[in-house]
Each structure stands twice: as C-alpha cells, then as structure tokens.
Design goal:
The protein is α+β, with helices and mostly antiparallel strands. 47% of the residues lie in helices and 24% in strands.
C-alpha cells in the first residue's frame, strides 16, 4: 500500500489533487492511504514552499500546481518509476 500525503491549505488545487490521486489509484487498482496535511508547520517540514505538494512513501515527489495523470500513475507504479517521473519534472 502506498502512503500518500497531499500538502496544502485546503485550496481548490489541493482538493483537486487529492481527488485525482484517488481516481487514478482506483482506476489502476492500487491500494493507497491518502492523508491531507493542512498544518503549515508540517508542510514546511517537508521543504515544500508551493502547494499542493505530494509526498509518496515519505518522499516529496511534487510541489506547486496540479499534477497530471501520467505523473500520478508513475508515482503509483513503484519506486523506479517515481524517480524517473521526479527527474522529468
């Protein structure tokens, strides 16, 4: 199971990111545990200055703006794909 945190104040982009991750995970049949993190101190502890931020299994993989479905699919595919997606960002 992937542990995913969506970092943000609860703005529209953060909510969209959360729903998009849920939808992609469900479509791919990937078990995920998604948590919203809205506490500013907690968000900054990840070094994220632009929201929404996304943390997958303890690693920041995205910050600022809504990620596209291809990025999310790469995060859900596994560690090797996550690293490749991160480098292309």
């Amino acid at each position: 199971m992937k542990d995913i945190k969506v970092l943000g104040s609860g703005c529209a982009n953060c909510k969209t990111t959360y729903r998009l991750i849920e939808d992609v995970a469900q479509a791919r049949g990937v078990a995920v545990q998604i948590e919203k993190v809205e506490d500013i101190a907690a968000i900054m502890s990840y070094g994220v200055m632009s929201t929404p931020g996304v943390v997958v299994d303890g690693k920041v993989v995205h910050a600022g703006g809504i990620p596209d479905k291809a990025q999310i699919e790469a995060w859900l595919a596994g560690p090797a794909a996550t690293g490749a997606a991160e480098m292309s960002s």
